[in-house]
Amino acid sequence: PFFQLTPPSTLGLNSLTAPPPRTIKAAVLDSDYSPKRSSSNEPRETIMLPGCDYNHWLIVMEFPKDPAPTREQMIDTYPNTLATVLGSMEEAKKYAFSTTTYTGFQCTVSEKSSEKFKGLPVVLWVLPDSYIDVKNKDYGGDKYINGEITPCKYPTYQPKPRKESKSVSKRYERRKNGPPAGQYRPKQAASPSESSS
């Protein structure tokens, strides 16, 4: 034989008395354990973030890059998408939209209703939302009031432009201007048959 199995008893393990690993044992024996959340009224796992109640949702949208929509086109898309689920454009205009921190909107709907967003055009993610400002119980995001978006007052992430390292820029200069002086340059000599013609 090419290989030989070592019996567990030889390794100091007894397969009849050795307990399974802790994580597997807990998952198997815990009747409340579920890798997926249930939509029924069963007790939920501990909610870690304040305000995350599975009634407040963050709908993140991904728009085409070419051609990219204008800010106004994105803003028009949000209440139209929300009205599809809520059934009312007036109700849809009460929620916070964003074109700065993320592209999407917030809404308050049941967990069952939140499922209706999945599969709608340009909807990327449907996520449970949580407070950005726990003290004031504020979910953040730009505010949509009377058809106008007021940017949020919270700091937003602004990525810094990347600087090229010195070695990258030096390599580019060498390629651009040719090899440094004194380095070997291949000669382009004509073959004997070409020079006689």
Automatic annotation (TrEMBL):
GO BP term, pick one: mRNA processing
Keyword Transit peptide: yes
Domain MORF/ORRM1/DAG-like MORF: 54-144
Source organism, top-level taxon: Eukaryota
This protein's UniProt keywords: mRNA processing, Transit peptide
Any one of the GO CC terms: chloroplast
Compositional bias segments (type: Basic and acidic residues): 161-171
InterPro entries (alphabetical): MORF/ORRM1/DAG-like, MORF/ORRM1/DAG-like_MORF
Pfam family for this entry, one: MORF_dom
Chain segments carrying region Disordered: 153-197
Name of the protein in question: MORF/ORRM1/DAG-like MORF domain-containing protein
